What we know:
Blueprint: E1 2-6, H1 11-14, E2 23-27, E3 34-41, H2 46-59, E4 64-68, H3 78-91, H4 97-102, H5 107-119, H6 122-137, H7 142-151, H8 155-174, H9 183-190, H10 195-201, H11 214-222, H12 229-236, H13 244-254, H14 259-272, H15 274-286, H16 290-303, H17 309-319, H18 335-343, H19 348-359, H20 366-375, E5 405-409, E6 412-416, H21 423-435, E7 439-444, E8 448-453, H22 458-468
Antiparallel strand pairs: 1-3, 1-4, 2-3, 5-6, 6-8, 7-8
Helix pairs in contact: 3-6, 5-6, 6-8, 7-8, 7-9, 8-10, 9-11, 10-12, 12-14, 13-14, 14-15, 14-16, 15-16, 16-18, 17-18, 17-19, 21-22
Amino acid sequence: MRLSLEKHPSITTALIPRKAGEWTWNQDESINGGVSGRLVSTFTPRTAAVFRPLWALNRAGIAVLEHEMLDVVDDVSEKALRRAITDWRAQGNSGPYRRRLEALAGIDLLALTLQQVDELPVRESNAARFAVTCIAFNTPGSERRLLARATDSDDNAAQQWVAAAIDRSRLTTMTGGSADIPNPLLAELIQRPGYLGERAIELVPMVTLAPDGDLLRILCEVSNADDARAESALTAMGSAPATDQVKRALRDALESTSTRRRAAALGGFATHWPDEARPYWNQFLESRAAPLRQTAEVVIPRHGDREDIQKVAEHVSKLIRGKPPSVVYVPPRGSEMISMLVTHADDPDARRALDDLSARWDRLYPELRGWLEEHHPFVAPSGMAQTSEATSSEPEEALMWPPPEVAIEEDGVLIWFEYTDMFETRAVFEELMAANPEVLIIDGDREWLRFSTSVDDPRALVLDLWERAGGLPT
């Protein structure tokens, strides 16, 4: 694809792929104050091949002004289209068959392929559905048609159309364009319960919300839903107008007893009313609930100021004294706070915290050292690592995770782990489950666990064992 970028000194560095040979970037001469060039990727699937370099530019703060797909084809006969779909259904991702579909584009081809979805038997139409997602990704304005189709489809089919609309909308907005998302269609979809409505809410930040519009009103209503849409709606309010209606919805969530809702609401509330958010983020930072503390670690650097430096410095000192994390985040946990300290390095508390990082350099875990070397190399001590203490602090207290969701079904009890980076708590929990003579673990993976039991109240059993494993009590 061809990209037009704003002029930036880090373009060449940002476009060095992490995986050698994943893509090549051939830059042209600067034009009109910007830079253009051709990027060729060997990655698959196509969506990842496009998004991975775009995310690299995004992380470096480089704006993409325009993009053009250079390998797409929009002039294909109905017969050739049917053959391409049939070949992929028979051959799958081997050979050139997937890439043929991924190169298709155009509103006319999109309409023709949607027609084939309607005409083919269900088993055969799955390949046509995949072709629709490929064509839509390469076609400006396809979001409107996909969302219209989603509103007239059952939940399973609608999820596929919404997912394709999200990919296209994200591509459009990341490359300087505006997504074609009609608010009435989006409002109808976010009212659909469960996963479909949750995915549709991902499109909200890509539209303009009128302060007195139906979409904003419905978004606020959904923030009180009894499913995962609530947290998604609260998160999306960060891009909503700062109305009294939005403020009430976010404050109600912050004052609720739900850890998930409170964590989801803080970012939006801090975006619009940072001074009023300060008591909440200070409370979250001191909480042992992992979602609350980790949310504060991101929100404070984004919306705080010099007034927050002392607490940030104290927290960073605790983080670097804890044991190495069982899950390594990218960027490392606390990195936003460290960058805030760098920004305010003239503050005495910030300076002491940065000196503390340097003094403990040889005891920092490797991923954090690597991130510091890349982003703030002056923190790394020169020559031999220092071992003197620049400040005195206790390590961070162990984090606690909210209990999982429990669904009682005919063939057993299903536990859903929303947070998948709580390895230690979950390991102890499963040991307690396995040791219980009234529990038989049937199956499970990273996100769920199924078991059978003879106890009268399986939900109470799970919550009790979770708390004994070190999780948050209910």
